[in-house]
Structures are given as structure tokens and as C-alpha cells.
Amino acid sequence: KRIIRQLLEIFLRFTHRYWFHEVSDQPQAKELYRMTATYLGADRLYDEIRNEIEDMSGYLESDTLRRQANTVVRLTVVTAFGLIGTVVTGFLGMNLIALAEASMLEKIGYFMIVLVPTTVLTFYTIVKSKRLSDFLEAISDERMPTAAKFKSLLDVWGKAPRPRA
């Protein structure tokens, strides 16, 4: 990415500093410049290089946007499933278990009992976030039959399709 951006910067600098068609006001110099530029094919080469750099830059921009969109989808899925954990821990935080008189070791034990599974579940959700995203999309599709929605749930834990070469 960095190299292509540097190429674009260099090309733009060249364009603004050196690329011009009016060399002189004298007709002989103008004609000589036109003949030389035509013979060398400077306009064609310039356009070709400009198009290639713009294509590469456009590809990089679209790839960056795709990656950002994928990250946002994954974060949204993790947040949606993390909401379930938030509700559960909020419910458990309503002092259903009296820990006021418990020893510090017992409190740390309860903390670890909640911390470890929550951490494991969070990382597992991140790993499965793409498939969970597909599942949430299937659930929200009103036209999709219930059997297909159930199949998309099972696909969360199915084998991953092999990437095409």
C-alpha cells in the first residue's frame, strides 16, 4: 500500500511540476514540442501510467473499505452476543448469592468462575463471528423459511468451506 501511495504522490508531483503542453509562445517551439511529444507518444504513455496508478489506488481503497466493513460486522456480532452475557451477569449481580460475609478467597473464586467462561466465550464468539453474522442475517430475513434459518444455525458449527485457489 505504502509503495502505491508513494507512486501516486510522485506521479501527482510530476504532473503539477512538469506536465504541460505550452512550452513557448513561439510557433516554431510549439510545433517542435508537438512533433516530439507525438513521436515519443508522451500523451499516450502519460494516460496509460495515470490509469494504472488510479486503478491500483482504487483497488487499495476498496480493499481497505472491505476490511473495515468486515471488522465492523465482526465487532457487531461480538457485541450482540456479548449483550447476552451482560444481561446474565447483571442478573447475577442482583445479590442472589450472599457474599458479604464470604472470605476474600471465596469472592476471588466466584470472580474466576465468571471471568474464565466469559473470556473463553468472548474469544470463541470472535472466532465464529463470520458464521454468526451469517446466522443473524438469516434470522432477520423474513422471506427465508424456518428450516433454512435452522440450517444456518447448524452451519455456525459445521466445517468451514475450503478457500478456492
Model description:
The protein has 165 residues and is mostly helical. The protein has a domain at 1-69. The protein has six helices and no strands. Helix 1 (2-18) packs across helix 3 (42-92) and helix 3 (42-92) crosses helix 5 (129-140). The longest helix is centred in the middle third of the chain and has 51 residues, at 42-92. It is elongated and about 100 Å long. The mean pLDDT is 82.
List the topology elements.
Blueprint lengths: L1 H17 L8 H14 L1 H51 L11 H24 L1 H12 L5 H10 L10
Fill in the keyword field for this structure.
0% strand, mainly alpha, 78% helix, 165 residues
Tell me the strand percentage band.
Answer: under 5%
Structural class: mainly alpha
N→C terminal distance: 23 Å
Q: Round the mean pLDDT to the nearest integer and report it.
A: 82
What's the main sheet like?
A: none
Query: Percent range for helical residues?
Result: over 70%
**Helix-strand string:** HHHHHH
What general outline do the C-alpha atoms trace? elongated
Q: Which parts are unreliable, with pLDDT below 50 for 5 consecutive residues or more?
A: none
How big is the Rg?
Answer: 31 Å
Give the number of DSSP strands: 0
Quickly describe the structure.
This protein has 6 helices and no strands.
